[in-house]
Amino acid sequence: MSSGTEAGGFIEPSEFHLYDQTVNDDFWRQVNHLRETCPAGWSNGPWSEFDSGFWFFNDFATVQKVATNWREFSSAEGAAPMQFDLDIMRMIPLETDPPMHRDIRKALNPFFTPTALKEQEPRLHAIVDRLMERCLTKAEGGQVDFVAEFTRRLPPLIFFEAFLGQREEEIGWILEALETLLLHPERALEVAPKLMFWEAEIIESRRAEGKRDDLIGVIAHLEVEGVELDERQRVETFNLMILAGMETTMGGLASVAWELACVPDVRRMLARADEKLLDSATDEFLRHASPVPGAARTAHADVEVAGCPVKSGDRVLLNWASANRDPKQFPEPDELIFDRSNAASHVAFGAGIHRCLGNHLARREVKAMIRAVCSLSSFEVEPGFAPQFRPSMARGPLSLPVTMAR
Ligand code: HEM
């Protein structure tokens, strides 16, 4: 998708789409300009293969207000800025409203609390160390692509090892399938059915065992208001569990790694930071990068929002990225300010009932990478290196060639 905007020009609000290649190639300049000149408005851009035209909200206050109003702004008709056919695949619980959403989150939340994740901490650090060692070996005497060797590897390894009990050597084909989905989405039909077949088999074997105490066991027995999910819904839930934390966290890690590679003095400062400052730096990096730039809702009422006459049935885009750079919420929003008092109020993980289930896990992964990278004596990109981004549900540099040394 490309709007054909002149180089250096700004996209017209009526043509705005988060996945427009012109917007992506010049992301923050375009997004900041749009928020400043048109905080809320109507775009004629597409939101599915067949439909176009949506309201967009760019400022922090409006994005928060709509995101926390699930009664009037539903996710059940889709939550992606470019909507897949929900009859083919629904992302559960993302594309559901209460009561279904409430019951599923209640069952899944316990696996992703800070207390539950504390147990996984040694495993996370072991995986980070393993990947860093491989990167350092590959970088000897040259460059290594930190995206290919680290940021695209960490999220699947931690999720499959820690949550699903699968070892790296067992899941080679899954890592390859995820890589294909990520880098060649046009080939999704080649790999997605195999992945979903594997998911269905694992769930059914848990049901046969009657095992309910691990994540798959809970998904295998999910109920909504006392009625079990059907087989397809169980697979759709398991599938989102796997995919929701992949491209998103990979994009976040890659963006943060790129920022770190550009600022040696920040790395030196963070190498000496205490836990509190590292936590706040992690949030500040995520605010600044906004790996998931937006989400969609469908209005279930006629309601005026920021002066826009939204009608029931209208599609609405929540621009998380723009909200995260709103100077009314974050003074000097384009700067990284690690001791911002409200760093954690960002909407990189969304807001309201759908706020990211895996946010504590993602934060821990990003923090562990920051710690590991900042402990190196060097981690550099070529001066002037400009990474490529692909318009997608989650943004992050597609590659990051670095030199690095212990
Ligand atoms: C930096 C990494 C991540 C970012 C930026 C991110 C971002 C988001 C955002 C913005 C939403 C809200 C979408 C909406 O409101 O429509 C969301 C929801 C979700 N995320 Fe994440 N995410 C990340 C990592 C993860 C991880 C590691 C998991 C692991 C399970 C995960 C699982 C989910 C799930 C299941 C939902 C749906 C929650 C619901 O509908 O209640 N995410 N994420």
UniProtKB/TrEMBL annotation:
<dbReference type="Pfam" id="PF00067">
    <property type="entry name" value="p450"/>
</dbReference>
<keyword id="KW-0479">Metal-binding</keyword>
<dbReference type="InterPro" id="IPR036396">
    <property type="entry name" value="Cyt_P450_sf"/>
</dbReference>
<dbReference type="InterPro" id="IPR002397">
    <property type="entry name" value="Cyt_P450_B"/>
</dbReference>
<keyword id="KW-0408">Iron</keyword>
<comment type="similarity">
    <text>Belongs to the cytochrome P450 family.</text>
</comment>
<keyword id="KW-0349">Heme</keyword>
<dbReference type="InterPro" id="IPR001128">
    <property type="entry name" value="Cyt_P450"/>
</dbReference>
<protein>
    <submittedName>
        <fullName>Cytochrome P450</fullName>
    </submittedName>
</protein>
<keyword id="KW-0503">Monooxygenase</keyword>
<keyword id="KW-0560">Oxidoreductase</keyword>
<dbReference type="InterPro" id="IPR017972">
    <property type="entry name" value="Cyt_P450_CS"/>
</dbReference>
